[in-house]
Inverse folding.
């Protein structure tokens, strides 16, 4: 999205913060992991593809701040700084660089399918990196253990979300731009 002097980018960023919150309520627990499957990653990636680095990153900052100050926007209707400091907090924190990086790669390399897929893979990697690291620290796990319970169970689902975000971005991109 091109830089605009109107409120339009702010509205879109707010919309993606709200959509990410809604995505948190679509939750599938994983028995061996404190990290549930949600639709949040889909909206993080879509924000990056559609809004660009600045506004996508801003949308995830707004989302995280809403949760930190007490709005029940995190998975399971949770909120507060305790969630950010807990075992799943690294994933939530990772939404900010994920949206930013997805947008930045898209701005830098264009909107072709390979560029968009690469951008989203970089975004998902940011989420996994921060999430697995914090899971390891908070839960007292080794990095390989945190990858086994905090990354591997999500690879297939996040790949599906990546494809869905690509498709939706192609359809919605015509309206938003």
């Amino acid at each position: 999205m091109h830089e605009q002097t109107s409120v339009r980018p702010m509205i879109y960023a707010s919309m993606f913060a709200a959509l990410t919150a809604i995505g948190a309520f679509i939750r599938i627990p994983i028995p061996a992991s404190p990290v549930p499957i949600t639709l949040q990653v889909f909206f993080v990636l879509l924000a990056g593809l559609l809004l660009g680095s600045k506004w996508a990153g801003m949308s995830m900052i707004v989302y995280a701040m809403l949760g930190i100050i007490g709005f029940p926007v995190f998975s399971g209707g949770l909120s507060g700084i305790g969630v950010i400091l807990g075992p799943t907090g690294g994933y939530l924190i990772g939404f900010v660089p994920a949206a930013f990086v997805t947008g930045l790669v898209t701005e830098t390399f264009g909107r072709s399918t390979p560029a968009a897929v690469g951008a989203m893979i970089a975004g998902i990697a940011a989420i996994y990196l921060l999430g697995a690291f914090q899971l390891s620290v908070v839960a007292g796990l080794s990095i390989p253990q945190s990858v086994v319970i905090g990354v591997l169970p999500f690879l297939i689902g996040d790949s599906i979300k990546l494809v869905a975000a690509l498709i939706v971005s192609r359809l919605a991109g015509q309206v938003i731009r």
Notes: The mean pLDDT is 94. DSSP finds seven helices and two strands in the chain. Residues 136 and 157 are 22 Å apart (CA to CA). The chain has one domain: 8-176.
